[in-house]
User: Which sequence fits this backbone?
C-alpha cells in the first residue's frame, strides 16, 4: 500500500481551447474537473494501476466535500482532516500544441492544531504502508520544517519516505534523510543554488542532494528524460512522446510508477518514465491506467550523456 500526504490539495479544472487570446471570450472544446495536488495525483495513479492507496489530506468547505467524493469514486481510501478554510480550486487552459496556462490558488491557511492533526493522521494510517509519499507545496500556516518533522516521525515508525517538494521545505527535510526525493530541473537548480545547463550538471546537483541527506534522487529533466542517482550509481532514461496533450500531473504519475515498481533501481526508473510519458498524452490531469503505458519505448542506461545540453536549462536561484 502506498500512503500519500498532500498538505495543500485542490480541485483542478481544465479547459481545452483552440488558442489562448488575452482579453477574449473563449469557448472550450472540452473541460473536466479532477482531484488535484501532487500527492493526490500519486494516489490516483496508484489506484489506476489497481493497487491500494490511502490519501491523507486536509479538506474544507464544499470544495473539500467534492474532492473527497471524486477520490472515493476512483477507489482511493481518503483520510481527510477537517479544516476551517475551503479547499482551493486551480484552473488550467490547454492549447492543441501542448501549451498549458495555469492559475493556482493559494489555498487555506492551516492552524497549528490542524497541522498537528494532519501529522497525527499520517501516523494513524501508516501501518502497513510500503511507502509514504509526501508531495507538494506547504499551505499557509505550515513552517518549512513541517515536512522534516513528518519524515522523522515516519522513519521512527519504520516507514520509507518519498518527498516531492521544493525550496526551503526540501532543504529543511534533507537533514532527516528521506529515502528518495523527486525534484524537476528547476527545483534541482534551486536546491543547489546554481544554473543547470547539461545532463551532467543535473547529475552533479543530484549527487550534492545525496550529500545533504537524500538517500536517492529521482530527477525529472522534462523532455530530456529522468535521472536516478542512488548508492549504486547513476541511471539515465528516456521515453519519447510524439504529442503532448497536458503535462499536469505527469511528474506525479512518474513518482507513482517509481514507487509501484518498488522505488529502487533501473526497473523502477523505467516504470517512472513509462507512467510520466503516458500521463502527458492524456487530457487535463488524468492519470494513466496500465493500458495507457508504452514500456517498449522506454530506454534506461548507465551511460549518462553528461555533455548533452538540457532542452530547458534551469537558472540557479
Assistant:
Amino acid at each position: 500500500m502506498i500512503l500519500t500526504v498532500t498538505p495543500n490539495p485542490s480541485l483542478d479544472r481544465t479547459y481545452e481551447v483552440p488558442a489562448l487570446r488575452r482579453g477574449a471570450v473563449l469557448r472550450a472544446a472540452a473541460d473536466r474537473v479532477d482531484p488535484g495536488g501532487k500527492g493526490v495525483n500519486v494516489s490516483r495513479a496508484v489506484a489506476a494501476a489497481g493497487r491500494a492507496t490511502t490519501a491523507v489530506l486536509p479538506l474544507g468547505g464544499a470544495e473539500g466535500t467534492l474532492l473527497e467524493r471524486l477520490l472515493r469514486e476512483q477507489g482511493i481510501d481518503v483520510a481527510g482532516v477537517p479544516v476551517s478554510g475551503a479547499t482551493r480550486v486551480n484552473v488550467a487552459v490547454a492549447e492543441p500544441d501542448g501549451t498549458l496556462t495555469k492559475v493556482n490558488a493559494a489555498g487555506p491557511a492551516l492552524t497549528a492544531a490542524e497541522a498537528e492533526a494532519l501529522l497525527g493522521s499520517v501516523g494513524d494510517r501508516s501501518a502497513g504502508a510500503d511507502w509514504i509519499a509526501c508531495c507538494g507545496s506547504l499551505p499557509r500556516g505550515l513552517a518549512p520544517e513541517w515536512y522534516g518533522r513528518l519524515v522523522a516521525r515516519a522513519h521512527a515508525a519504520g516507514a520509507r519516505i518519498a518527498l516531492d517538494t521544493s525550496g526551503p521545505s526540501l532543504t529543511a527535510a534533507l537533514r532527516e534523510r528521506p529515502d528518495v526525493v523527486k525534484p524537476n530541473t528547476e527545483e534541482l537548480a534551486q536546491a543547489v543554488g546554481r544554473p543547470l545547463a547539461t545532463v551532467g550538471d543535473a547529475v552533479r546537483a543530484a549527487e550534492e542532494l545525496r550529500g545533504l541527506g537524500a538517500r536517492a534522487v529521482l530527477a525529472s529533466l522534462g523532455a530530456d528524460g529522468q535521472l536516478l542517482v542512488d548508492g549504486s550509481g547513476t541511471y539515465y532514461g528516456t521515453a519519447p512522446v510524439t504529442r503532448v496533450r497536458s503535462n499536469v500531473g505527469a511528474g506525479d504519475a512518474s513518482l507513482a510508477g517509481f514507487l509501484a515498481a518498488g522505488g529502487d533501481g533501473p526497473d523502477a526508473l523505467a516504470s517512472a518514465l513509462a507512467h510520466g510519458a503516458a500521463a502527458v498524452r492524456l487530457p487535463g490531469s488524468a492519470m494513466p491506467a496500465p493500458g495507457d503505458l508504452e514500456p517498449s519505448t522506454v530506454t534506461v542506461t548507465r551511460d549518462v550523456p553528461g555533455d548533452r545540453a538540457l532542452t530547458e536549462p534551469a537558472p540557479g536561484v
About this structure: The first strand starts at residue 2 and ends at 5. The CA atoms of residues 133 and 162 lie 5 Å apart.
